[in-house]
């Protein structure tokens, strides 16, 4: 059995085998481009207590292994694998991956590799010192046949390949973490906790490792959720690679889908129809337009007021609305003016009710009420919320109720600087106390230096909030972990945009499948989609993106792109009125700055920024 593992050393894997068998220690350690695995070979699958001991031992033995960049081997990156020689089939149990002998090849699958050769060599060398009692075994190098699978020899690389190899190290987060990231992954929080920090500092990476850490120490389901529909699916793919043994124990779903599924499980009917909701609002606007246009003529400003302030904060009475601080809203309203807005809200509510409709806030409100009436039968061991800055206060209250009280149950991850919707709150407004349990990550790992420098120009000088009213860290103050990168700018009339985009795709060193084209409004998306179609460039709307590399350029608005990253990003900004142009100028400018910052920080290596001079279409 071990010989099957040792045979892989010809392909650049390292195997360290115990001198003497011991039922509470791993039989071998396997180190390769997929990371580090402690391997036990046993007739029967280990029970939980034994698996926990094996895992802890392996984690402790490997603790302190470092990468050449000074990162530490994540405790959560050590896998436990049980090989069952007699079994026909084996099921993973959450603590370890179980494999029948015939399935051993799964350990070496190329799609699980994420470390470069020098990183593997570095780990193996340090592991030898940390694993007394284990002997490194190798097949003789003369038996070496093929080039190591998934590994590259630096001397043999052309410049292009070298660039490609550098990209791959972006996945090393599956094995190596910054010491601060590592600390947050395993820290014990005696209540709700919060991770904030500027774009690209690894907040999601930490959240995924933490999920694995918590799953290893608990039973029952765990939940990862965000506001954006497709984001959880993309992160789910990464998580399955990080923690294949956990199968579906961690649920990845967006907030509203979760709420709807939950309500349906309680036989509560939800009637959510975006088109009809818009009509309900438009009809209300027709009635109240005259009383509000002197304050602000664009109806979407008031639509946002209802969505993010009145309903989003769960306000029930005019008295509450008069008292509330409308953080981030540009139009100041005295109590008489708020009364006028309230009437618009009441008519809108009336219209929804008449049509038997629910809007997005209603769904969250209903789920909150239902959870308060009767909590989940099987509570989540932990709830992790990503991109929390764009969730409404009502959504936060629901999540807090869902997670329940207790240590390590609720983790909120976000960055106030990346808020792409208007309206603001503090976590304490939702009754979520995080004092003493707030972490700020400060090292940007995603963006190459030139890209980061470009993105920092969108960093407003305003004070950055840590999501709870205290000072946070802005993108301009982030430490950069990468060098290099390329940025290009273009400005011209719309007529020349097709040629400019084609040229951008041509000069980009990155394949189309790793490239995203980001705009700021839905109508701009239609425009760039039509350009790509005419140029025969295959593309996929980010609405349907689930993390696969299908060779197509991904296109979408910044609202869809947030939380994601791509090797190359092309941004098309139409004129100066891109973001939330409906709001009064200060608010619009701030929102626009944040949206630009989010768009620019999606790029890892190559960023092209195009400004279309004439917005007329
Ligand atoms: N420890 C690490 N080692 C190597 N790369 C890392 C590490 N942590 C993060 N990264 C890289 O940085 C990228 C960004 O990480 P992540 O998405 O977790 O950041 P974020 O703070 O959530 O970003 P944003 O707020 O912009 O969505 C990852 O895709 C990964 O490539």
Describe the overall structure:
The chain is globular. Strand 12 (382-385), helix 14 and strand 13 form a beta-alpha-beta unit. Helix 8 crosses helix 13 and helix 13 (360-373) packs parallel to helix 14 (393-403). The chain folds into 4 domains: 2-140 and 156-167, no CATH class; 178-267 and 378-445, Rossmann fold (3-Layer(aba) Sandwich); 274-357; 485-612, P-loop containing nucleotide triphosphate hydrolases (Rossmann fold, 3-Layer(aba) Sandwich). The longest helix has 20 residues, at 335-354. The protein is an alpha/beta fold and 617 residues long. It has a 6-stranded mixed β-sheet. 36% of the residues lie in helices and 17% in strands. The protein binds adenosine-5'-triphosphate (ATP). Residues 71, 170, 172-173, 176-178, 181, 197, 199-205, 415, 418, 445-446, 563, 565, 601 line the site of adenosine-5'-triphosphate.
Apparent shape: globular
Number of strands: 22
Structural class, from secondary structure content? alpha/beta
CATH class of the largest domain: Alpha Beta
Which percent bin holds the helix content? 25-40%
CATH topology of the largest domain: Rossmann fold
Strand content: 15-25%
Ranges with pLDDT <50 over ≥5 residues? 143-162, 164-168, 578-582
For the record, the count of structural domains works out to 4
User: Could you describe the largest sheet, including whether it forms a barrel?
Assistant: 6 strands, mixed
Separate helix tally:
19
First-residue to last-residue Cα separation: 68 Å
Q: In the CATH hierarchy, what is the architecture of the largest domain at level 2?
A: 3-Layer(aba) Sandwich
Q: For the CA atoms, what is the radius of gyration?
A: 26 Å
The fourth-level CATH homologous superfamily of the largest domain is: P-loop containing nucleotide triphosphate hydrolases
Mean pLDDT: 88
Strands of the biggest beta sheet: in what spatial order?
6-5-3-2-1-7
Bound small molecules, by name, code or SMILES, are: adenosine-5'-triphosphate
């Amino acid at each position: 059995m071990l010989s099957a593992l040792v045979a892989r050393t010809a392909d650049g894997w390292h195997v360290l085998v115990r001198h003497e068998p011991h039922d509470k220690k791993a039989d071998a350690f396997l180190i390769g481009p997929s990371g580090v695995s402690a391997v036990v070979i046993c007739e029967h699958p280990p029970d939980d207590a034994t698996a926990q001991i094996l895992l802890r031992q392996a984690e402790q033995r490997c603790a302190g292994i470092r990468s050449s960049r000074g990162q530490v081997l994540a405790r959560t990156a050590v896998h436990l694998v049980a090989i069952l020689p007699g079994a026909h089939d084996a099921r993973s149990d959450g603590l370890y991956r179980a494999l029948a002998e015939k399935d051993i090849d799964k350990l070496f699958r190329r799609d699980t590799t994420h470390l470069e050769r020098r990183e593997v060599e570095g780990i193996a060398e340090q592991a030898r010192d940390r694993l007394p009692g284990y002997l490194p075994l190798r097949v003789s190098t003369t038996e070496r046949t093929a080039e190591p699978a998934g590994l590259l020899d630096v001397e043999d690389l052309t410049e292009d390949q070298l660039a490609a190899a550098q990209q791959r190290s972006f996945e090393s987060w599956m094995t190596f973490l910054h010491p601060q990231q590592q600390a947050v992954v395993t820290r014990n929080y005696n209540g709700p906790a919060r991770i904030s920090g500027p774009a690209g500092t690894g907040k999601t990476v930490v959240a995924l490792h933490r999920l694995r850490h918590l799953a290893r120490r608990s039973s029952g389901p765990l939940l990862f959720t965000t506001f954006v529909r497709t984001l959880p699916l993309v992160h789910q793919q990464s998580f399955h690679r990080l923690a294949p043994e956990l199968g579906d124990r961690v649920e990845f779903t967006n907030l509203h889908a979760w709420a709807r599924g939950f309500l349906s499980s309680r036989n509560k009917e939800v009637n959510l129809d975006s088109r009809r909701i818009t009509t309900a609002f438009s009809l209300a606007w027709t009635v109240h337009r005259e009383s509000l246009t002197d304050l602000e003529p664009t109806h979407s400003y008031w639509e946002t007021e209802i969505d993010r302030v009145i309903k989003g904060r769960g306000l029930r009475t005019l008295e509450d609305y008069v008292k509330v601080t409308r953080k981030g809203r540009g139009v100041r309203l005295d109590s008489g003016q708020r009364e006028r807005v309230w009437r618009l809200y009441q008519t809108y509510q009336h219209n929804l009710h008449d049509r038997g409709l629910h809007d997005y806030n209603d769904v969250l409100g209903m789920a909150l009420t239902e959870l308060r009436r009767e909590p989940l039968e099987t509570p989540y061991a932990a709830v992790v919320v990503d991109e929390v800055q764009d969730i409404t206060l009502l959504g936060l209250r629901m999540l807090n109720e869902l997670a329940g009280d207790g240590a390590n149950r609720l983790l909120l991850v976000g960055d106030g600087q990346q808020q792409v919707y208007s309206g603001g709150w503090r976590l304490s407004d939702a009754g979520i106390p995080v004092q003493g349990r707030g972490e700020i990550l400060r090292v940007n790992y995603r963006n190459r230096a030139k890209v980061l420098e470009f993105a920092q120009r969108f960093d407003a000088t305003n004070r950055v909030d840590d999501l709870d009213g205290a000072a946070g860290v802005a993108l301009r103050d982030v430490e950069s972990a990468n060098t290099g990168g390329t940025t290009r700018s273009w400005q011209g009339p719309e007529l020349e945009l097709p040629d400019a985009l084609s040229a951008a795709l041509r000069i980009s060193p990155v394949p189309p499948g790793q490239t995203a084209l980001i705009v700021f409004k839905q109508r701009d998306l239609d425009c760039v989609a039509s350009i790509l179609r005419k140029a025969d460039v295959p593309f996929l709307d980010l609405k349907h993106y689930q993390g696969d590399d299908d060779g197509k350029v991904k296109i979408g608005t910044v609202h869809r792109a947030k939380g994601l990253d791509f090797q190359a990003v092309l941004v098309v900004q139409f004129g100066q009125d891109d973001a939330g142009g409906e709001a009064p100028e200060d608010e619009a400018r701030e929102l626009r700055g944040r949206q630009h910052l989010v768009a620019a920080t999606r790029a890892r290596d190559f960023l092209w920024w195009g400004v279309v001079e004439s917005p007329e279409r």
